[in-house]
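Hi all, posting the design record for the shared folder.

TITLE: backbone redesign
STEP: 1 of 1
STRUCTURE INPUT:
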């Protein structure tokens, strides 16, 4: 069975569908424009079916006026769809006996393409001459060159018929191994060949064209599919008329395709082999939808190959092309189904009660961002209106469903969660659609039926109000919103909503009363300002400033900041708390606010009220911020007479309120005069302030009798000076008063103005807060550019005079400063320091590298280091040893005398070891050991066992240090010195540690002999040393096992190497040809006795005389060496010399050849790059230097060792040099103990 369809109009469903019945030769025609899709025509008859066979392919032209039918026996017929008349019957268009697999109309109604079961492609040209209809056939591709399985001509929509590329009438063809794009007009030409390699023979090639927009131009794109990969090829025409095809991004799938079609320029529909429909977005490669269509019961085409029954050679792909084919009826009908049933996807989600997903999909339709949507083209406003009406229906349904499915019983939290999941979605989409009428009428009425739903609904409005997405609300909803937030005690949220609302939506009386009752001053000011353009009345009400005082007591600073913010906004021309004041009202508002602030008394003030209550209140609240507001206002004032009067009047009021009143702190008074100093320092200043007032402020701030708020008064005065107020004072008097008040920062400020930097050092040293900053100050002055030599010299001299005071302050920082800037004065500083402990701290910071000072900056005589060691022994003896390890400059003899003087034995032992007197260091440690043992014995006798454990730990620690000393230096001592350097120990456990460590360096018989000769172990039972002897035996067994294992590994390695060498030597070679690669004659053509046959490992064969004629052979050390002529043609200038040992191992660049007789085939090495003679000589020398003991010598020594007695193996370590073993070699010794430490 075959079927096809064609639509008449792109924006409607009017079209035609035809299906051919297998075996009957009849075609049924239906009209899609008919609501019932009734049968219009039945073309053909059973007689035609008996003569031509079944219909195997169908095609309808663009205007649905002609139908082409291809038959299984190869005939082609053309029908008139208007009258049902047979117009043509074509029997000679292609080879007889081959079925028509595909037949396609092009955009030219007189041109069609057909593809037969032989894999050939033909062009059918329809003509009418003298009233006779004819058909001319032309072969476009022969099946003998490859079977074409699929064809697809390029079709253009009506609006694209004028596209430049349509004049070529492009045709895409897919064979089993490649794709071809050819042009039928104006002449036949192949524009592109795209090989894609061999794939599964049962997979079906698929082709589909569509015009897409890429880089601001519309061009056709060809989709080619086979298996699980889709290739996209973009076709373009350049200015010269040539066509270029470029590859685009591939699409890799996890299923095999059997059909493919485009829905629009970015969406495609794919059908896989298990009858699942996949909707894919081409650009993002996202799978938008998957539909199971097995229930549709698809009908596939029949196979039409007579050779199948007789076992003929027909490829599986060609069979599958026909048997898996649908024409285009499946996807074409599906495409129109998308157009007709646009809401089917939404309805499907609604049936599954996925209302949120349904709304999201509908909104994507509304925005035009939905993918895989066809049929929504046309006027945008009309489309949006249709979708909006549909969404309104869904929203109402959603609201009804939410109320019906509300849980009647259970906790209130369950009901709240239920509505919180739904109500925000409804509100969101109503506002997106701009349907506030729907939201506040029908939806709100439905939600009001449930109190929980109503509360959730009102709370959902808050974020939209705060983001200014919802400016207007109906009065009833606004009233309910205010009451709801008031009941929930969410007053801050309520105030935030009020200031964002349109004033016309508010009940002003209700809002004002609510704001006064709950102290919502921001909202109240917003209502007065925006609703009535009144900026004074809110502040005139007595409650407002009384509220400020109340807020100061019980609420946060941020909450009571609103008066300042309100005045700041008004004076800057901005509305409070949001927006801007209308431009025509800005001057009026500024004047009104100023007049209000400088009122002598408030409207509802009492009789005893102080003057200027508003200014006084704001100054008490935050003096600095209020003055900043005034400063910003002065910047905006125009320089006219009225503005100057306002400024001077405000300044006079400020001075009167603050200077004549003792309620203000020094900080507040200082802020005022700092403000005044900044204003007076301006170039266009018009203010006048009596200078006497500044003197009064200076006296007030620098009063030495008042110790309270010292740092605050100093900081205020400093800010006043930095703001330009210094011009109001006499500098000498200012410095004098600052010194009396101990205002050292003020002194520093003044000295810096006078460039007296040395005096600033005194300021730092006297200031208890900033003392340690003096080091950075001195370093910056002495090292940074910008200061004169005299200034630096004065600072340097001042610092040197106070060096002892600096050391007392911080020895480490002082030492760092001395090392950088006073390195030549160090000896003088040391001489002048009388305090020995301070000298010790200074030297430790200066000389100890661990303190972080760069020692390269210091060049001192050794006596200074010895003086430091002397002081260190006195004040910190426990750190002497660690310090000596890192100290670089000291004389050993003098330092040893110092440590011995203070009886620091460990330090003395370290210095003796460093000097090279190992025996002396050992005796010192031995003396310490004896002393500790005697102390333990004495204390045990005096006090019993109470302190024995601590003393025993000290003895063990000393013993381990002594052992470490012996181990570090044992490699520099002979056998007698090693034996003499062991400790005769009376404690068994400690003796065991000594002897176990001795076993790694001294022969075991010597150790046993020493034990047996000792008078302590010469008496008593042998069981006392049983553990020691067993330990020695374990050590011997371990070393013997280790040696045997190493011997076995060496033997195995030697055997493996010899086997590989033998295999390489005896390997045969097979030549690639039986002739010489140079003379091209067979190798048997010569009988000369001197001629040999040379075969290389690469397979090339030569006569030896031919190689000699090409200079590919040379004699080295009596042996002939050869090089392959063909493989080394690029290295003809290379030398034919190489190391013989490398060639034997097969690592050389050319073979080793020696005479084996006539016709012998020598073994050759693998070819590599050549080495020149200098490189070969250097490599031989490197091998000789690194050559170790030969394997034969090792085996001989091992065999001699096994034939000897077991004790003979132990005696190896102390034999004489004439009979020394290879195992005594330093490179072969087994180091079972840690390596000794090298001397410094």
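Okay, here is what came back for every position:
SEQUENCE:
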């Amino acid at each position: 069975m075959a079927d096809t369809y064609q639509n008449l109009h792109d924006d409607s469903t009017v079209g035609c569908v035809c299906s051919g019945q297998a075996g009957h030769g009849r075609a049924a025609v239906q009209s899609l424009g008919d609501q019932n899709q009734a049968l219009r025509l039945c073309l053909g008859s059973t007689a035609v079916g008996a003569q031509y066979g079944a219909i195997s392919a169908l095609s309808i032209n663009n205007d649905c006026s002609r139908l082409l039918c291809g038959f299984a026996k190869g005939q082609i017929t053309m029908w008139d769809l208007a009258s049902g008349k047979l117009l043509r019957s074509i029997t000679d268009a292609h080879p007889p006996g081959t079925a028509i697999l595909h037949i396609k109309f092009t955009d030219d109604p007189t041109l069609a393409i057909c593809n037969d079961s032989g894999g050939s492609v033909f062009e059918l040209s329809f003509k009418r001459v003298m009233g006779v209809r004819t058909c001319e056939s032309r072969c476009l591709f022969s099946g003998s060159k490859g079977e074409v399985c699929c064809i697809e001509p390029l079709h253009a929509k009506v609006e694209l018929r004028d596209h430049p590329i349509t004049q070529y009438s492009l045709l895409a063809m897919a064979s089993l191994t490649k794709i071809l794009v050819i042009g039928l007009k104006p002449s036949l030409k192949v524009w592109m060949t795209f090989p894609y390699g061999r794939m599964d023979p049962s997979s079906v090639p698929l082709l589909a064209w569509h015009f897409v927009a890429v880089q601001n131009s519309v061009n056709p794109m060809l989709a080619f599919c086979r298996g699980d990969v889709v290739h996209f090829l973009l076709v373009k025409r350049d200015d010269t008329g040539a066509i270029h095809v470029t590859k685009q991004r591939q699409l890799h799938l996890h299923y095999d395709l059997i059909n493919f079609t485009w829905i629009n320029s970015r969406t495609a529909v794919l059908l896989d082999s298990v009858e699942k429909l996949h909707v894919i977005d081409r650009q993002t490669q996202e799978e938008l939808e998957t539909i199971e269509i097995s229930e549709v019961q698809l009908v596939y085409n029949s196979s039409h190959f007579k050779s199948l029954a007789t076992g003929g050679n027909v490829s599986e792909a060609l069979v599958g092309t026909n048997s898996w084919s649908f024409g285009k009826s499946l996807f074409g009908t599906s495409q129109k189904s998308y157009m007709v049933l646009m809401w089917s996807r939404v309805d499907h989600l609604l049936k599954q009660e996925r209302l949120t997903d349904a709304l999201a999909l509908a909104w994507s339709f509304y925005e035009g961002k939905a993918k895989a949507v066809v049929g929504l083209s046309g006027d945008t406003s009309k489309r949006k209106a249709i979708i909006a009406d549909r969404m309104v229906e869904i929203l109402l349904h959603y609201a009804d469903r939410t109320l019906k499915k509300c849980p009647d019983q259970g906790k209130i939290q369950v009901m709240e969660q239920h509505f919180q999941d739904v109500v925000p979605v409804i509100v969101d989409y109503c506002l997106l659609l701009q349907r506030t009428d729907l939201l506040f009428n029908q939806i709100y009425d439905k939600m009001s039926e449930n109190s929980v739903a109503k509360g959730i609904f009102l709370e959902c409005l808050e974020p939209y109000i705060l983001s200014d997405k919802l400016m207007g609300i109906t009065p009833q909803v606004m009233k309910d919103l205010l009451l709801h937030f008031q009941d929930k005690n969410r007053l801050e949220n309520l105030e935030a909503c009020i200031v964002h609302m349109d004033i016309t939506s508010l009940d002003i009386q209700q809002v004002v009363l609510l704001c006064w009752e709950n102290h919502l001053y921001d909202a109240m000011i917003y209502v007065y300002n925006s609703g009535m353009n009144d900026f004074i009345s809110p502040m005139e009400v007595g409650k407002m400033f009384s509220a400020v005082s109340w807020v100061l007591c019980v609420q946060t600073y941020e909450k009571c900041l609103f008066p300042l913010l309100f005045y700041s906004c008004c004076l800057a021309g901005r509305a409070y708390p949001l927006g801007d004041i209308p431009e025509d009202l800005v001057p009026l508002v500024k004047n009104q606010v100023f007049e209000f602030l400088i009122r002598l008394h408030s409207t509802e003030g009492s009789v005893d009220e102080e003057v200027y209550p508003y200014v006084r209140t704001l100054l008490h609240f935050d003096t600095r911020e209020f003055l900043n507001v005034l400063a910003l206002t002065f910047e905006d004032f125009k320089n006219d007479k009225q503005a100057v009067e306002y400024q001077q009047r405000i300044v006079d009021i400020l001075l009167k309120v603050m200077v004549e009143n003792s309620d203000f702190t020094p900080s507040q008074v200082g802020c005022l005069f700092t403000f005044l100093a900044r204003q007076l320092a301006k170039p266009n200043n018009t203010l006048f302030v009596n200078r006497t007032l500044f003197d009064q402020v200076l006296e007030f701030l620098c009063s030495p009798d008042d110790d309270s708020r010292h740092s605050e008064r100093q900081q205020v005065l400093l800010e006043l000076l930095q703001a330009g107020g210094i011009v109001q004072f006499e500098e000498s008097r200012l410095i004098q008063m600052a010194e009396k008040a101990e205002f050292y920062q003020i002194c520093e400020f003044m000295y810096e103005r006078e460039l007296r930097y040395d005096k600033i050092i005194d300021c730092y040293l006297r200031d208890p807060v900033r003392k340690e900053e003096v080091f950075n100050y001195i370093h910056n002055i002495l090292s940074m550019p910008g200061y004169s030599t005299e200034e630096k010299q004065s600072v340097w001299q001042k610092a040197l005079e106070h060096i002892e005071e600096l050391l007392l302050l911080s020895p480490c920082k002082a030492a760092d400063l001395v090392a950088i800037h006073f390195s030549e004065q160090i000896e003088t500083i040391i001489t002048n320091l009388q305090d020995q402990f301070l000298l010790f701290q200074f030297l430790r910071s200066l000389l100890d590298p661990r303190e972080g000072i760069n020692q390269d900056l210091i060049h001192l005589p050794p006596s200074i280091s010895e003086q430091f060691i002397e002081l260190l022994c006195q004040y910190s003896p426990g750190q002497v040893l660690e310090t000596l390890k890192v100290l670089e400059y000291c004389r050993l003899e003098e330092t040893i005398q110092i440590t011995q003087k203070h009886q620091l034995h460990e330090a003395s032992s370290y210095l003796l070891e460093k000097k090279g007197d190992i025996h002396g260091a050992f005796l010192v440690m031995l003396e310490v050991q004896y002393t500790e043992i005697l102390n333990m014995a004495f204390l045990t006798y005096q006090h019993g066992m109470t302190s024995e454990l601590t003393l025993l730990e000290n003895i063990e620690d000393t013993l381990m240090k002594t052992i470490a000393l012996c181990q570090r230096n044992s490699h520099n001592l002979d056998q007698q010195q090693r034996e003499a350097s062991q400790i005769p120990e009376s404690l068994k456990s400690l003796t065991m540690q000594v002897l176990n460590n001795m076993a790694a360096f001294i022969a075991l018989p010597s150790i046993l002999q020493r034990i047996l000769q000792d008078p302590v172990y010469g008496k008593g039972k042998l069981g006392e040393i049983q553990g020691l002897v067993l330990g020695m035996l374990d050590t011997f067994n371990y070393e013997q096992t280790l040696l045997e294992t190493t011997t076995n590994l060496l033997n195995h390695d030697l055997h493996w190497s010899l086997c590989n060498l033998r295999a390489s030597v005896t390997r045969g070679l097979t030549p690639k040809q039986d002739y010489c690669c140079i003379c091209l004659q067979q190798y048997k053509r010569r009988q000369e006795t001197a001629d040999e046959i040379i075969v290389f490992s690469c397979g090339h064969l030569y006569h030896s005389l031919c190689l000699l004629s090409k200079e590919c052979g040379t004699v080295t050390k009596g042996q002939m060496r050869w090089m392959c002529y063909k493989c080394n043609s690029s290295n003809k200038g290379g030398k034919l010399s190489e190391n013989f040992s490398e060639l034997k191992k097969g690592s050389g660049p050319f073979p080793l050849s020696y005479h084996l007789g006539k016709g012998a085939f020598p073994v050759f090495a693998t070819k590599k790059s050549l080495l020149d003679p200098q490189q070969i000589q250097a490599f031989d020398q490197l091998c000789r230097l690194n050559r170790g003991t030969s394997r034969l010598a090792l085996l001989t020594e091992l065999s001699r060792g096994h034939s000897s007695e077991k004790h003979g193996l132990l005696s190896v370590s102390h034999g004489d040099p004439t009979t020394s073993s290879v195992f005594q070699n330093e490179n072969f010794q087994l180091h079972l103990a840690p390596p000794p430490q090298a001397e410094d």
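COMMENT: The two ends are 99 Å apart (CA to CA).
Let me know if anyone wants the other runs.
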